[in-house]
């Protein structure tokens, strides 16, 4: 767990400091669920726009999102 904690901290710092690009996406939400403090989104026919120039398409995308803190932490 110490490795995951270190990874989360470092990747957050690096992304905030180094990444200047923007990404937007649009698609059709197929399924969403919230279980054990984890959100899961399944999106179909997704189009990503990178810096408002490059466009990338995908048939399906799965996004998993969770809280960075453990349940009960302040």
Commentary on this structure:
This protein is 23% helix and 53% strand. The longest helix is centred in the first third of the chain and has 17 residues, at 2-18. The protein has one helix at residues 2-18, and strands spanning 23-35, 38-50, 54-66. It has a domain at 21-67: Transcription factor IIA (TFIIA), beta-barrel domain (TATA box binding Protein, subunit D, domain 2). The protein contains one helix and three strands; from the N terminus they run αβββ. The radius of gyration is 15 Å and the shape is flat. The chain has 74 residues and is an alpha+beta fold.
Number of strands: 3
* N- and C-termini, Cα separation: 19 Å
Structural class: alpha+beta
Report the sheet-strand fraction. over 45%
Helical proportion, percent range? 10-25%
- Detail the poorly predicted runs: none
Query: In CATH terms, what is the architecture of the domain at 21-67?
Result: Roll
How are the strands of the biggest sheet laid out side by side?
1-2-3
Q: How many helices does DSSP assign?
A: 1
The topology string of helices and strands comes to HEEE
Query: Which fold name fills CATH's third level, the topology of the domain at 21-67?
Result: TATA box binding Protein, subunit D, domain 2
Largest sheet: 3 strands, antiparallel
CATH class of the domain at 21-67: Mainly Beta
Radius of gyration from CA coordinates: 15 Å
CATH superfamily of the domain at 21-67: Transcription factor IIA (TFIIA), beta-barrel domain
């Amino acid at each position: 767990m110490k490795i995951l904690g270190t990874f989360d901290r470092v990747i957050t710092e690096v992304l905030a400091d180094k990444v200047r690009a923007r990404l937007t996406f649009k698609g059709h939400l197929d399924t969403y669920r919230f279980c054990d403090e984890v959100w899961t989104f399944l999106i179909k026919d997704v189009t990503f726009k990178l810096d408002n120039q490059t466009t990338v398409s995908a048939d399906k995308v799965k996004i998993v999102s969770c809280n960075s803190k453990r349940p009960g932490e302040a």
